[in-house]
Write a structure and sequence with these properties.
Helix content is 43%, strand content 15%. Helix 7 links the parallel strand 9 and strand 10. Bound molecules: zinc ion.
């Protein structure tokens, strides 16, 4: 495809044409889950957004040209706390959450990243990077702790547009007597005996959280790569610290060239928070809502804008998918998507614009031929919508019916008898009864047919 991809690069604070370092070897790193609790709908947003970016990059540069790395944080203070609270071992906790996380990704029908490295498999490289930072004078050790000395890195704050002196003034970072300056951040810290620990030149302990992404991106993508993504909450300090560590340890003038961040999700206009009791877990939707409905809802706002999650949004998306299945057709191999259809996605992942295109293609498919229908389904499939066949979609709905098919036929017969006897009140009562159970009946050409609501 000749069309260019544009992305809002937070490193430059503007939308830019995406120019990869090597067209055949594009590197994208996205901060993945910290596996201490089951993922919630806020975690689902970056998963879906960066999956779309992965798909867009693959469509332009070829499937094998994109190396998408999404890490798993399996050592962290939250994990230690949660395993203590639940009274289970850390490995039991993390392996259970990783399994649930993978189930959620399958439910959302996401493409598997090229690599999903775990932090605990890369402790050696982290220790190596810390040693190098100490040798170069960017980090110091005190009482078995190692800190990165922020004022030694002159570009600190460039990504988040923060000035070091403002940071110090408004500092809410951890104050410790071991630190030279309040804004310095931890690279290594000692563990107590009941916490996971690794041997290091600075005693038994564990790495600071920020360091793992610097280590894993280095291993799988090299010192300088194309795209780094994550939720906007990670921009500062996490991503700022990643840049500082990596550039200083690797002796480079840059780290990732494009920094992409997705905005928050609110729940009925309220901030999602444990204290508000409004945290919606992905797994809780599975029973009643199909993954593609959830995905359409997650893509309904542009990734840079906050997305408000509410009942109406889900209902609208449910109805849309329902309607779109009316023109479902198995795809003919010959049909391909053209640049015009994909252009909203190439333009800074404009998913609402793409969904508008899908509505337009649907209207065309309704009155058009098989080619129009196939093109519409293919365009839906590109973002993982209409990814089930119509038969699969109907059978899922049938499972949710509150009445058996035999009973539906009996009720229809009873209703027809009532109508013959001109007992329209009774006939109408049966119709409403069926509707409540998810069955819609229609009288057509002297016959009564039923459909799923
Ligand atoms: Zn990270």
């Amino acid at each position: 495809m000749n069309k260019n991809i544009y992305l809002t690069n937070n490193l430059k604070n503007k939308k830019e044409k995406f120019i990869p370092i090597h067209k055949e070897k594009i590197g994208m790193y996205v901060c993945g889950p910290t596996v201490y609790d089951n993922p919630h709908i806020g975690n689902a947003r970056p998963l879906v957004i960066f999956d779309i970016l992965f798909k867009v990059l693959k469509s332009k540069y070829g499937k094998k040209s994109v190396n998408y790395v999404r890490n798993i944080t399996d050592i962290d203070d939250k994990i230690i706390k949660s395993s203590k609270e639940k009274n289970i071992s850390i490995s039991e906790l993390t392996s259970g959450i990783i399994k649930n996380f993978n189930d959620d990704c399958n439910y959302l029908d996401l493409d598997k990243p090229s690599q999903e490295p775990k932090a605990t498999d890369h402790i050696d490289l982290m220790i190596e990077m810390i040693s190098s930072l100490i040798t170069k004078g960017f980090a110091y050790e005190k009482n078995n702790h190692v800190y990165f000395e922020v004022n030694k890195f002159e570009d600190y704050g460039k990504l988040s547009n923060k000035k070091l002196k403002d940071l110090i003034a408004g500092s809410r970072v951890e104050i410790s007597e071991n630190k030279k300056n309040t804004e310095d951040f931890v690279l290594w810290k000692p563990s107590s005996t009941d916490e996971p620990l690794w041997n290091s030149p600075w005693g038994k302990g564990r790495p600071g959280w920020h360091l793992e992404c610097s280590a894993m991106s280095k291993r799988y993508l090299g010192d300088i790569f194309d795209i780094h993504g994550g939720g906007i909450d990670l921009l500062f300090p996490h991503h700022e610290n990643e840049i500082a560590q990596s550039r200083c340890a690797n002796n480079t003038k840059s780290f990732a060239n494009y920094w992409i961040h997705n905005a928050f999700i609110t729940i009925s206009n309220e901030k999602m928070a444990k204290s508000s009791g409004n945290i919606l877990k992905i797994k809780d939707f599975k029973e009643n809502i199909d993954g593609q409905v959830l995905k359409l809802a997650l893509l309904s706002a542009h990734y840079k804008q906050p997305l408000d999650w509410n009942e109406k949004l889900l209902n609208d998306c449910q109805n849309t998918i329902e309607k779109w299945y009316e023109v479902y057709l198995s795809i003919d191999q010959k049909i391909t998507l053209n640049e015009d259809i994909l252009s909203p996605l190439y333009d800074d992942l404009n998913t609402p614009g793409y969904i508008t295109n899908l509505h337009r293609l649907f209207e065309k498919a309704l009155i058009g031929d098989d080619n129009d229908k196939g093109l519409f389904v293919l365009a839906c499939n590109f973002i993982g919508i209409l990814n089930k066949t119509k038969d699969e979609w109907i059978s899922i709905k049938k499972k949710k019916l509150l009445i058996s098919e035999d009973d539906i036929l009996i009720k229809i017969e009873l209703r027809n008898k009532a109508r013959e006897n001109k007992d329209y009140k009774k006939a109408d009562k049966i119709r409403i009864e069926l509707l409540d159970k998810g069955v819609l009946i229609e009288d057509k050409d002297g016959k009564t047919i039923w459909k799923l609501k």
